[in-house]
Amino acid sequence: MLKTIACGELRSNHVGKTVTLAGWVHKRRDHGGLIFIDLRDSRGLVQVVFNPERSPQAHQVAENFRSEWVVLVEGEVALRPAGTLNPHMPTGDVEVYASRAEVLNPSKTPPFDISEDGQVDELLRMQYRYLDLRTARMHDNLVLRHRVVKYIRDFLDARGFIEIETPILIKSTPEGARDYLVPSRIYPGSFYALPQSPQQLKQLLMVAGYEKYFQIARCFRDEDLRGDRQPEHTQLDLEMSFVNEEDVLGLIEELFTDIVEKVASNRKLVKPFARLRYDDVMARYGTDKPDLRFGLELADLTEVAKATESHVLRQAVDGGGIVKGFAAPGCGGYSRRQVDELTAFAQTRGARGLITISLEGEGTSLDSLGMDQVRSTLARFLTLEQVKQIAQRTKAKPGDLILIVAGPAKVANTALSQLRNEIGQRLKLTDPTQMVFAFVTDFPLFAWNEETKAWEPEHHLFTAPAEEHWPLLETDPGSMRARHYDLVCNGMELASGSIRNHNREKQERIMRFLGYTSEQIEDRFGQLLGALEYGAPPHGGIAPGIDRFLYLLSDHADSIRDVIAFPKTQNAVDPLFHTPAPVTPEHLRELHIRIEE
User: Fold this and answer.
1) Structural domains in the chain?
2) Mean pLDDT, residues 89-109
3) Disulfide-capable partner of 221 in 152, 177, 291, 532 (CB 3.0 to 4.6 Å)?
4) How many CB atoms lie within 10 A of CB 185?
């Protein structure tokens, strides 16, 4: 190699040795004759000193050094003089006195300062991603990613799992999102699809007798994006035979606990992971992925609303909706402008409006509360007793602000769950170093789609229902519970999984119930259903998202894009390669495709 040691590996035990270093000029400082540079490579930084009296040639070369030039330096390692040590650098005890220097490649002036962790427009960072990846924050994120993925592989290997790769070009199958399609040149008019997940493939591996499978899988979904989504993402795909739910959850809890404690020691972990039922978390938090680092639980106020004189509340209840709310502690003094901000926030999340009740005063008791201490647009429609009932159910006390949404259950829960997170952030109730995991279980097997007026799988159609719920399929499908489970942490869904249907007859019953014809069943799922007839074992699995998990583990990530080497924007665009992009007419003709305006 051109260098004998990495810059970041130099320590006091190397003093007196002559070394050859190569890397990038991180910073350059000219101190009246002496030139200092911080030389950077993938292992870290070290200070190099160019003294014209010790080596005029090296000093002359260094006079031309600029930021991000690639250079080679040979010199002697020495202890830094007393008072100049840098405790913030692993190499801060030593420096290298250069005896020879060489420019390996100059650099244009970068569009942003790589040596400083300042605020840089994300689009610019992604356009010059190869420069952004040189920054300390991105370097640390990718090193963390490597260590986490390596730990996963070692952990599962030690427990008898084998890693098996599955195809990227597969058949288009409905699994909840749109597929990315790849046209076939050899078979005009036919298409491959990029896998949303290896779902059917891993089930086929269970039929094939590989009882413990995993892979670090690339998955593709053509769906609308947001901060925690990408058109392509990486997940740990895992499947096991002869297991029940607790076998899968126990394994994942051990794996994630080990990673947090042994790989990302900068995080605090709450143990053991909570087990929460779907109905319970929806009632208490309005979402199936609650942030459990703080309280502010929702309260059902529907019964109280029925007895009020408020037309708004009673109309919502009479229309089949609900009334729910929670208390924002210490926010009773919010101004009109602050309340309007919260109202606008709730409205952008689907609510028609936000009802607020401000309780003035101090202390913890509601006994002395009077209507003169209640500020609310609904005050004239509520009795003091009703206000106290609402306060008691939301656990509000004098000085708090009660936030209420009335409307359809889905709308009220969505608006309040996001409003709860907003209040948690405003009041700084979340500790970014804390990770509170929970498994959510007992999901509904099906969800009703109001637009299509039909039942859909809550997870996917391969999920098994609770065995005792099969008789409900034709009579009360909405009451069926799935052998499905999610792993959530800090308000994010990190993993979904389930025990699968391993019997063909039962799997076909689900498909027919969902409206698939015999022809559609055979065309889309024939390969899996046929395999289930050849001794398919009971099996189940889970698929944690690696990108989201790394986002929570990192100290330097504002979104999952910061833990991915070459991500897309929120509009699914790659500013570096300028994709998606048109292709040549010749290429389209080869694929028998014509673009129509």
Assistant:
1) 7-105 (2.40.50.140), 139-276+437-563 (3.30.930.10), 294-429 (3.30.1360.30)
2) 96
3) 177
4) 11
